[in-house]
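Slide 14.
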Amino acid sequence: MKYWTRIIGVGLMTVTLATAAHAAVGLQTIREFTLPVKPLDVALSPDGRLTFVLADNGTILVYAVDSGLKDTITVGPGIDRIAVADEGHTLVLTNSKTKQVRQVAVAFQAMIDIADSPFKGKKDAPIVLAVFSDFQCPHCGRIAPVLEQVLEHNPETVKIVFKNFPLNMHKLAMPAAQAAMAAHNQGKFWEFHNQIFATPNLAPDSFTKIATGLGLDMARFEADMKAPATQNKIMADMRNASAAEVNGTPSIFVNGWLYRGQRTPEAMQQVVDQEVTKLAATKKK
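Slide 15: predicted structure.
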């Protein structure tokens, strides 16, 4: 038997009461799911993008607003209440019978498209550190040498992939991304990348100065900056960021898992080591 649950929106109109009056209430179906199991409880992420359905078989079905069933999480028997916080990254699970409450972190592996993106390290390295970055973001400039240290410590297993995510608040972020991708076409992305972050006060003519200093073919550089292919690549990165729920820079993914730890070489090394162990265990199976 299939069970269904309906998520509804309630619209309220406030009126000033001089005499007896009625508040208007309207109900409108936002979305509806047909479930393969009996639901015990339902919770919505604060941003409304995810619906968590606690089922009677010890699992949580996670539905995305735009793609249906996203994942199934096993929580075990006895859980009969669920609450959601932190944009869907934290669940509070309650077992009424045992009077226990458990808070758990939730992470979803994102699909990061690294095809044709600038990278450092071995092409076939098993651990990919993909960073969504903005060239006018000071935090992005500070994370770059940290990632470099991680790569130097793991030359056989790690590669760094750069993904463009220029923020609207930074007026030169998009031109900087276009310039860097134009330099990428001439094999000078990382040199250009480093010099942009080393420039304290970016100006519209900064990119031409950097390109000239690197000895780039300037006619090709200027044409590539304006080329539709360059803009298309940047927009593809931004669509990928949206699908991965990136909302700020820098955002770092380790083999598709959003990194939430401290931005230090030591902290990131721990995650790399965990990923190496996980991959080794997978190979043994």
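Speaker note: The two ends are 36 Å apart (CA to CA).
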